[in-house]
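User: Quick sanity check before I run a bigger batch. Here is a single chain. Can you write out its predicted 3D structure?
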Amino acid sequence: MDKSERFFEAMGDKISNRINKKKRFYFNVKNEDLREVVNYLFKTMGCRLSTATGMEMYHGLEILYHFSDDDTGTYFCPRVIIKDKENPKVKSIVPIVKGAEWIERELFDFWGIGFEDHPRMERLLALHHQQNL
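Assistant: Done. Predicted structure follows.
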């Protein structure tokens, strides 16, 4: 059994709507399961967070994380859908992946998504603007 098969077996019903592409797996994760899935990808499998992207869709806001298994060139892309566009919130992955701090702050700037338990949830652009005054 390869790494990806072990991952999907271990995560079971924590993931849904899986789409398999060549060297890419896209799948939905509920907010309450996000940290467990990220912990497995980052700590158990040793995947690297490349980036995260946000998008507004008809059903809400989406955050798509891009984790690379550099040994195989495979990407694992958990997607969290936030239905509340007026007060969008999701759990921060910074407690697991320190490198997500600025990425989540960018998503906060662009989409207004609040990241629960983020160590420094403040706007990047406002900070930059203040420094240039």
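The longest helix spans residues 34-44.

User: Great, the batch can go ahead then.
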